[in-house]
Design goal:
422 residues, Carbamate kinase, globular, alpha/beta, single chain
Length: 422
């Protein structure tokens, strides 16, 4: 039996009706049995849903925002389907479900669970529209709910995958379908042991493609982006970028670990463990080769630049004139783990621990509350974390001109600096 091929299309590749038509043309010449398509929410839908939650949490009226989001999806459907097509009733029903969920109580204590219920909605409506359009174009696919097979724990917003249960569900529920029909499903979402919706972390649809590819023993996974492949820097921020024709799993994993946005950081590991190649290709130029990530690629020494925005620098200083010990580090990391906060940079001195983390609603406030009794704490918000892998000699300085540097460190192959515009 032929191995399954997994294609993942991100928000930019389904951002409007023309983008969905382009997706169908990419699929048209490639569709076959044992074919799995994973789609993200359309355009900036996830951001819009997060804004809805923020308004609800603040006790503000969010009905206008909800209406705008609904109209956005209706207009995409109007560009794809004739009047009266069944998809319009499906979209109407999904937004009614969203409205009912948004009427439930939301507070700081249940925010993460509520978030997963609401924000995963973007993938559900997107996948319905895309599946209906492909079938309308006589490209028959079977719509499936990813929550049926992607099993996780109950760490809402950052759920961890139950790999064994997920693989069994994929084998028993989806493989028989794939032997006869292609499947279209959602990225980003899963379900916990009680059947409650979970999400895999922001931009987690890439990770979904890797989870399903590994669980099905796929022949390859392909992520379709608005860039020609994996570049050594974000072309929206930096000029003169270079494309990698191929990358090793380890190099790609290192880039994503430091925040390269082209691939979700958890994507590489399951594919590498299973020896499944990952292709990153452009949906604008689908016949171009893109980048192949696999186990046989030669290492590179091209400087690679990663910039993470909306960063917070937090420094914990001991208050009793003692030096930093393992116990202090353990206490800080214990609370970071409890709050599901990932450290993007760490620096120790004799009397302080400095960490850089992503800004997340409530998280800094909760961290301060828990550790204030033990440390004197200072923090700076609205920062950028610049990482350069394989920096050229003195090559980092050009990226620091016009910035105040609050923290920097260098190792043999990596330079990092926390900066803000002066």
């Amino acid at each position: 039996m032929a191995k399954t091929l997994v294609y993942k299309f991100g928000g930019a590749s389904v951002k409007d009706s023309e983008a969905v038509k382009n997706l169908s043309e990419i699929i048209r010449n490639r569709l076959r049995k044992n074919f799995l398509i994973v789609v993200s929410a359309m355009g900036k839908t996830t951001n819009s849903l997060e804004s809805l939650l923020a308004k609800k949490l603040a006790g503000e009226d969010f009905s206008e925002n909800s209406a705008i989001l609904k109209q956005f999806h209706v207009e995409i459907c109007q560009g794809l389907f004739p009047k009266g097509h069944a998809v319009f009733a499906q979209v109407e029903n999904l937004f009614l479900q969203l409205k009912n969920k948004l009427e439930q109580e939301l507070n700081r204590d249940n925010y993460d669970e509520f978030y997963d219920e609401i924000v995963g909605f973007g993938e559900l409506v997107s996948s319905r529209i895309v599946a209906e359009y492909l079938c309308f174009q006589e490209l028959l696919v079977v719509w499936k709910d990813a929550r049926e097979v992607v099993h996780t724990n109950s760490d809402f917003r950052f759920a961890k995958v139950d790999w064994e249960k997920t693989a069994k569900s994929c084998a028993s529920q989806w493989r028989p379908v794939l032997e006869s029909f292609p499947i279209l499903t959602q990225g980003f979402i899963g379900s916990d042991p009680k059947g409650r919706p979970t999400t895999l972390g922001r931009e987690g649809s890439d990770f979904t493609a890797a989870i399903l590819a590994a669980s099905l023993g796929a022949g390859s996974a392909t992520i379709w982006k608005d860039v020609p492949g994996v570049l050594n820097a974000d072309p929206k921020v930096f000029s003169n970028t270079r494309k990698f024709d191929e990358l090793g799993y380890r190099e790609a994993a290192e880039m994503t670990y430091f925040g390269a946005s082209v691939i979700h950081p958890k994507t590489i590991k399951p594919l590498a463990n299973a020896g499944i190649p990952l292709f990153v290709k452009s949906f604008l130029y689908p016949d171009a080769p893109g980048t192949k990530i696999h186990g046989e690629a030669a290492p590179h020494d091209v400087p690679t630049i990663v910039l993470k925005t909306n960063q917070i620098l937090v420094s914990f200083k001991v208050t009793d004139f003692t030096f930093i010990e393992e116990l202090h580090i353990h206490r800080v990391y214990e609370q970071l783990q409890a709050l599901k906060l990932r450290v993007n940079m760490l620096q120790l001195s004799a009397i302080s621990i400095s960490i850089v983390i992503d800004a997340q609603l409530f998280k800094l406030e909760q961290l301060l509350e828990r550790l204030k009794p033990e440390f004197e704490i200072r923090y700076n918000e609205g920062l950028e974390l610049l990482t350069i892998l394989h920096p050229a000699e003195n090559g980092a300085q050009a990226y620091l001109e016009g910035y105040e540097v609050l923290l920097e460190q260098a190792s043999r192959n990596t330079f990092q600096a926390v900066r803000r515009k002066t």
